[in-house]
Amino acid sequence: MQLEKLCKFCDDFLKVSEFDDYCPNGLQVQGSTEVNFIVCGVTASQALIDAAIEVGADTLLVHHGYFWKGESQPITGFKGARIRKLILNNINLFAYHLPLDVHPEVGNNAQLAKIMGWNIDGSFGSVGAHDIVFHGALESEMSIDVLGESIATKLDYQPLTIAASEKPVRTLAWCTGAAQSYIEEAAARGIDAFVSGEVSENTFHFAKEAGIHYIAAGHHATERYGVQALASIIATRFGVKQQYIDIPNPV
Q1: Which of 20, 46, 80, 109 lies most in the core, judged by the most C-beta atoms within 10 Å?
Q2: Which CATH superfamily includes the segment(s) 3-97+223-244?
Q3: Per-domain residue ranges for the chain?
Q4: Which pLDDT tens digit goes with each residue over 37-78?
Q5: Hey, which bits of 101-204 come out as E strands?
């Protein structure tokens, strides 16, 4: 398919124009004008770029790309090395951040719920026109330890569990990645437990004092699924080849 067609489809499907994000969403580095083989992954690291080159991909689709607000602007050092590799190998780089977190079908939050079997009853945590935190009720209540074990099994990642009390979990809120600060709004809503990717030092104390359980299930581990779902839709709709390559990350 033509690169221009892929740009338009992804930008429209993810409603990119509705977001004021920390980075540009969409095509970040232009390479081949023909897209035949997409490699998707979480972060456009050197290891993922090398893996994409090895399998002969012409396009890289990620959640974490480049040009973040506040970062150094010169294309030097490790960022320069990464971009140079993409250009020399004629590889396109697409990156979608917040639009890929909150999309109701392929978003990281929606995909995490699908994998875990969680019901989505609503959302909160407004980011412009969209909410970034999903919430719902479990089919049956369970202890926070059992919930943590379920996450460990289904994500193949050992989460950090902070039990606030002996209270069982029936209501749950979640937001993938570095969204631990939303625990405060979850607690204010009377939700039993909050799940995110990362944890901060003060999260422990807040959870204990506010009486809300918290699980840090891994930034990388919780955000592996949005890019896979998006790449799968692209492959089905446009007949291009796609492959997910996981670059293990314990964070």
Answers
A1: 109
A2: NIF3 (NGG1p interacting factor 3)-like (3.40.1390.30)
A3: 3-97+223-244, 102-220
A4: 999 999 999 999 999 999 999 999 999 999 999 999 999 999
A5: 122-127, 130-142, 160-162, 169-174, 193-196
